[in-house]
Design goal:
The chain is α+β, with helices and mostly antiparallel strands and 187 residues long. It has helices at 24-31, 34-37, 47-58, 112-127, 142-150, 179-185; strands spanning 7-10, 14-17, 67-75, 81-89, 96-103, 132-138, 154-165, 168-178. The chain starts with 6 loop residues before the first strand and ends with a helix.
Length: 187
């Protein structure tokens, strides 16, 4: 089996790595699933969209101010893609990053995203030495809210009609965690 080159972090069950061409099919399967996209901006996701997205991610490097980088989350035992997490390095203040994440529905409810994000936050605050991570979530997205709170992220605000999803303005919560708090928690 072809493995992708760059590994950014590992955890007990998972590998956080760069996307590879073998990820196109599983990525397409969960991105095109309405359950995974309910609170996300995209809809009617096609195989061509997935191919273009993965190709772009394979040619992109993380930690570039003003851009998003999508990290693949794969099972450590088989290298199978089960989801992704993304980091937006803010252009105006690259010491602050924004988080995004999606897990294939059949892998939810097993603690995989919590495990992946713990490894990602160790990497972001340890290897990348970032100051703060923020995350926005639709106020109706209870699974996402539970995950962010379980990570110890702090609710910083309720933003009214802050995001357009599928033709409707939705309210979002903004969560955040500081480097100092995360490193203390992980000691
Ligand atoms: C948000 C999302 C990633 C949450 O997935 P998840 O699997 O619930 O998240 P976690 O990894 O934290 O797993 C927690 C669940 O696993 C269970 N679990 C099982 N074993 C576990 C373990 N070893 N450790 C922790 N939790 C475990 C928990 O009890 C919990 O289950 P519950 O929801 O029934 O209470 C997922 O719903 C998703 O991808 N949604 C679509 C995309 C999306 O909306 N993204 C957010 C954009 S802001």
């Amino acid at each position: 089996m072809e493995k992708s080159n760059e590994v950014f972090a590992v955890s007990e069950r998972l590998v956080i790595r760069q996307f590879g061409i073998h990820d196109v099919q599983p990525f397409y399967q969960y991105r095109s699933n309405p359950e995974a996209s309910r609170f996300q901006s995209w809809e009617n996701y096609t195989l061509e969209d997935a191919e273009a997205f993965v190709s772009k991610q394979m040619a992109t490097s993380p930690n570039q101010p003003g851009t998003w980088f999508q990290y693949a989350i794969a099972l450590g035992t088989s290298d199978r893609l089960i989801g992704d997490c993304a980091i937006h390095t803010i252009g105006a203040e690259p010491r602050i990053v924004e988080l995004g994440f999606t897990l294939a529905p059949e892998y939810q409810g097993k603690g995989y995203m919590h495990e992946a994000l713990c490894a990602l936050l160790d990497y972001v605050f340890g290897s990348l030495n970032k100051h703060k991570m923020i995350a926005f979530t639709d106020v109706r997205n209870t699974k996402s809210i539970q995950l962010l709170e379980r990570l110890g992220m702090r609710l910083e605000g309720h933003l009214l009609e802050n995001y357009m999803i599928k033709g409707h303005w939705v309210d979002e919560y903004q969560y955040a965690v500081l480097q100092s708090k995360w490193l203390k928690k992980r000691q």
